[in-house]
Model the fold of this input.
Amino acid sequence: MFSSLPLNLYFFVPLVTHTGALPHTGSNSQKPAAFFLAGDSTTAIQSSGGGGWGDGFINTTLHNGATGKNFGHDGATTVSFRAGGDWSWVLGNASASLANYEPYVTIQFGHNDQKPAANISIAEFTANLVQFVKDVRNVQATPILVTSLSRRNFENTTDGPRIVENLADVTAAAINAAREANCTYINLNQASEDYLNAIGPTDAYTYNLDPTDYTHLNDEGSIVFGNLVAMLLDESVPAVGNYVSPEKQIAEDLMKGVYYFPPGCEGEFC
Done:
């Protein structure tokens, strides 16, 4: 376990490298934020088939009347999420919240889009993300693209165990989509990879949904990486600062690259 991250691994300024113009940020509104999370199983609620950062984010980092709903869907791609009706449900809920909330839609896909069986090219994946951004803006909500949560597969290198960077293609595509659409993004892939490299495989595996699942998160992992998302949002979307606040100790440890595991955590979100 490392006691601190090298300077180039401190998350915020170097990793949130692009903040596009936000047409509807809520900066002049007194309404609290509402977050609608669209994504695959690495966003979704914990279950036997998946689990991501989404519910940890909603249940531990939202304050002052803010709310959220997790629409993450196990196995989803940018194609299936739309075709199966999930995307319409996200947009409908975001639109319905406008009277009482300032809606934000986070969009994180890639884990399944990159699989050969999905038959989705990088160009199509990028275009699908750009269209998601346009759809969110059409319902007067604010889109935020999120690069894919890192998997926890390590390889031995001359510098010790390091995360296998097997999501580089979809991460780059998501960033390109954000630039094309002039949309805010947070680089969760880089931030989560840096933290995992800092703590090493033994501690990283304690976040596994089950001992051999190096993709999905258990309840404790959802809390830790949900707080990481909150930290990145606070940096890239100042308008949500009054409503999104990571737990102090988690934030301090994540900033330093120090392993954190929620104490006494048992069952759903402790």
Notes: Residues 113 and 221 are 23 Å apart (CA to CA). The longest strand covers residues 33-39. Confidence is low (pLDDT under 50) at residues 1-28.
